[in-house]
Amino acid sequence: MKQLFLTFYFLLPLISIQATDFPFQGEEELTFDIHYKYGLVMLRAGAANFKVVEKSRNDNKSYFMTMDFKTSSFFDKIFKIRDTLRSNITENLRPLYHIRSIHEGNYQFKEEVFFNKFSPTYSEVRVRRESQQIVKFDTILSSNTLSYDILNLIAYIGSFDFSQQEIGQEESATVFIGRDKITVTIRNEGQSIVEKSEKLKYKTYKIALDFSDSNFNESKNAIEVWVSDDKNRIPIKIKAKLRIGAAEVYLTSWKNLKYPLSSEIKIPVK
Hints:
- The chain is mainly beta.
- It has helices at about 1-10, 75, 150-155, and strands spanning about 30-40, 40-55, 60-70, 80-90, 95-105, 105-120, 125-130, 135-145, 145-150, 170-175, 180-195, 200-210, 225-230, 235-240, 245-255, 265.
């Protein structure tokens, strides 16, 4: 089940167009249910919680984002996961720091990413992993493309206006995870309606992602994301192809969004 939760690390697309404004505000929270599908069987595998905290120092504003992953009591018996991701990013979308605290069965470690240099055309990071107080590696990685860690990427993506893109337009980016640099190719597949129930639908933009990563059964269209068609641009639904089965993720609740969730369509009860 580790692979199922790795999928959620890439829950959003990356499109390198002009940013509009910082997409979050302090105390914003999102909650997601994560499901595992094998054949016709769909089981709830766990949940993820995302929270933003605003920090100001010497007139410089930055944001700390935290995402927690937790398997359900049923999946705990198969593979127990208690992961936490935490990142720091400035108001103008410069990543500063990222830490992953991984607790997956008997597999545990802490990994830190320090952004030494960052620009649209070059990034350099120091990545340090420690397990049971032993340093596993401490290395420098660089990329000649716009690059983020897996959590600060969320803030960057939420700042874009997908309506300004052409359908089918592709962009590429790099994500640092461990000692790997994973290339992500993103396609904007246009507007789509997501039906949550008979009484509730959402206007969204559908985004397809390709990955240079072995955790996905198929690299092309490895993940499909339906992002709310409003200024919040939060993920409403996610589907991912895994080596065995598939993952589906659904937004279940939100709190203190920066903008009204105007993409929501409520169907009157007859």
